[in-house]
Amino acid sequence: xxxxxxxxxxxxxxxxxxxxxxxxxxxxxxxxxxxxxxxxxxxxxxxxxxxxxxxxxxxxxxxxxxxxxxxxxxxxxxxxxxxxxxxxxxxxxxxxxxxxxxxxxxxxxxxxxxxxxxxxxxxxxxxxxxxxxxxxxxxxxxxxxxxxxxxxxxxxxxxxxxxxxxxxxxxxxxxxxxxxxxxxxxxxxxxxxxxxxxxxxxxxxxxxxxxxxxxxxxxxxxxxxxxxxxxxxxxxxxxxxxxxxxxxxxxxxxxxxxxxxxxxxxxxxxxxxxxxxxxxxxxxxxxxxxxxxxxxxxxxxxxxxxxxxxxxxxxxxxxxxxxxxxxxxxxxxxxxxxxxxxxxxxxxxxxxxxxxxxxxxxxxxxxxxxxxxxxxxxxxxxxxxxxxxxxxxxxxxxxxxxxxxxxxxxxxxxxxxxxxxxxxxxxxxxxxxxxxxxxxxxxxxxxxxxxxxx
Length: 454
Prior knowledge:
Helices cover 39% and strands 21% of the residues. By secondary structure, the chain is α/β, with parallel strands linked by helices. The strands form two sheets. Strands 1, 2, 3, 4, 5, 14, 15, 16 and 17 form a nine-stranded mixed sheet that branches. Strands 6-7-8-9-10-11-12-13 form an eight-stranded parallel sheet. Helix 12 (312-330) crosses helix 13 and helix 13 crosses helix 15 (393-400). The model has no long low-confidence stretch (mean pLDDT 97).
């Protein structure tokens, strides 16, 4: 019984085409695995009553700079250009390893609280060799499933983002890989967070892509966003360097040409879209339908909590609203019905779960409530103000629920949130990240005073 959990009597949304939705359904977890999904299951297990609630796979966030949790909401009105100055050229150089640890722990617990069970941690804060160790420690302590994407340092905007000649240090990437990721069957796996062409010189791009492929780890890169990067034809540059591949996730993609969409589709690359950031900060229009039109399965991501919320409910709604607006606008003059490919609420749930797992390279493990997969499961309270009554469970999750309705979160068979409260030591995590936040703000103020004085 100790390693068995039975989620009983919920509206089970498996996000598995073969299993479908199960009203009054049960999910049996044995150890770290989903053992059975059905109705009237019987087992010697801890029973969690899900009557009136909705059971879903955990959300998958395919791109978040978790290290920024300590500077949450520091730039609420920022454009992308502002972000480079306000965050990467101001706060980032001041980060100590303990600030990265505090942020990754608190940021990961924030994810779990919101029902995000898998995270791609895009960690471009490796200012010293101690910084990546600190980030990984935070992820481990939180108990989240994560792909840790090792990125560059950020000690100088000019050095690391203006046609940079500095490659991510291979010796440290190899150290981190051999120390923490000798096996890829644990909760934590590894990738490489690269800056790509335009931001870096060609020899740096070749070195970083080659390093990742030598180690057999996936690549993730920001691309085709904002006023500058959107004009660089970064995919065409990668194609010219012979580097396109199925192991690469392209983030944002707001200004791909039609040719670049075809190149990515042909190479079987994957797509991560952060709708709230892209619309709010000026990256460009979130290209969900563009990606789907060429046969790709775009996923959703948060990006930066310096400027937007850190939950998947926000992303699903933003994406749903912006693309439904486009679909409605396309038939405004003709008064024709909506196009057949207009997004649905179910499409959004799939993007936030199964398609996210696909992009993170973990679809064989998570993303659906399929027997044999890892037990990453979330229960959404359907009895609360704002969610009750549940008529369409998918609609409730995508359009009615929020973080406060995340009742239970299970990662690899371990309960990380129960009865609406995190099981981890949030008080300690909060105090640590608040302490780091105070240090960073004081350090920045001192730096600015000294700069003004000189």
